[in-house]
Amino acid sequence: MENNQTYHPTKTKLIVLGAGESGIGAAILGKQKGYEVFVSDGGAIKDIYKQELAVNNIPFEELQHSMDVILGADEIVKSPGIPEKADIMKQIRAKGIQVISEIEFAYRYSKESKIIAITGSNGKSTTTALTYDIFKRAGLDVAMVGNIGVSYAKQVATAPAEYYVIEISSFQLDDIITFKPNVAILLNITPDHLDRYEYKMENYVASKFRIAMNQTAEDYFVFCLDDPEIMEHLKAKPIISTLIPFTIMEPLKEGGFIENNQLKIQLKDGMEAEIVSMYDLALKGKHNLYNSMAAGIAGRTMNIRNEKVRESLVSFKSLEHRMEHVSTVRGVEFINDSKATNVNSLWFALESMESPVVLIMGGVDKGNDYNAVKELVQEKVKAIVCLGIDNKPIHDSLAEYVDVMEDTLSMKDAVEKAFKLAAKGDVVLLSPACASFDLFKNYEERGKQFKLAVREL
Questions:
Q1: What pTM, to 2 d.p., does this model score?
Q2: Which parts are annotated binding residues?
Q3: Are 363 and 439 contacting, i.e. CB atoms less than 8 angstroms apart?
Q4: Pairing of strands 357-361, 381-387
Q5: Which of 80, 105, 236, 253 is 20 to 30 A from residue 449's alpha carbon, by CA?
Q6: Residues tagged in the binding site annotation for ATP
Q7: pLDDT tens for residues 20-40?
Q8: Same domain? 74 vs 170
């Protein structure tokens, strides 16, 4: 199907691959817009999603892929979790069927809305939630969608909004064609998911920059001036949208910056630049200075007043599983940072610690390079409790930098061991730097089990 055709053909056959949150959303929106929809999942579909499909009279299959049906599709919406190298994708590509992401599909039916799209290797969820909070406090009709919760397509189908704040992964950006945010935010780029990008950093970087590929000069590209990967790519391949940088290194004529310990945002709108003292920000740590600036800039590009931005930045509550204070037990603080699924996230977590740390880490290692955290581990971590099936890479890289390193295979055991190793005034930090799929369904389940184990101490 050509991109410029109308999208209301008589019963176009739409196949949705993967029946997770985004797939179900795409199926519901497709059905609503008159497509003939079929959902196919090679694994088991959660009961809650089966109910949604049944209620909407959408046929589906699980634990298999009927290739004769799939290859008869006019268009396919693919789950971000399915890699190009999967056999099913090779067959689809050979047939020449157009494949899009749920983000692209939802965008077709929400072009009248203002779209703020946020990507980056770290800090996406926090910045998305903070941006949403700013827009909500300003009284705007806004929805928070994408990786962070409800699917964009489901929101468009069931409760369309005037503004969408979308958290987007590189996998979702890989399958866009026309998607164009009014404000694109690129927070940072550090090695992650390289297994999906032929282990080439430049492929991953290019994927992140797809967020701006359809933007025009009327749109905004908000980016971190202190990130070498971003700056190198921008020099090589300039983009045409209006650039708004943010930095903690120097004052800027235009953008977000720190001056005299004040977070300032200077745009061409002539509004006073000063927003808030950096010491009053609700979210602590250097990485959250960047997140706060990016969210504040997004608000200002949509003419939200400084006081509303300030109100949000000083009173925002951090997300579950992201540097979340769980409890203090006999003087030991427990922090849940289960969403830290890569080394860079662990670096940010350790960088913000001011007390000695007993670190719980481990899981599915995506080819992690732990060199980046060695210095911080040596400086701040007194013991590491490994939680995973294969902890060898952690032992090989970090054992010499801590006095104690122990292995565990359950969250309960990990929390109990960490508590024994901690003294009054220490922090037990769950910041795994790895994916969770060896022992848990996802990082949320890992974080919930951590909180449960802490409460049972």
A1: 0.77
A2: 120-126
A3: yes
A4: parallel
A5: 80
A6: 120-126
A7: 999 999 999 999 999 999 999
A8: no
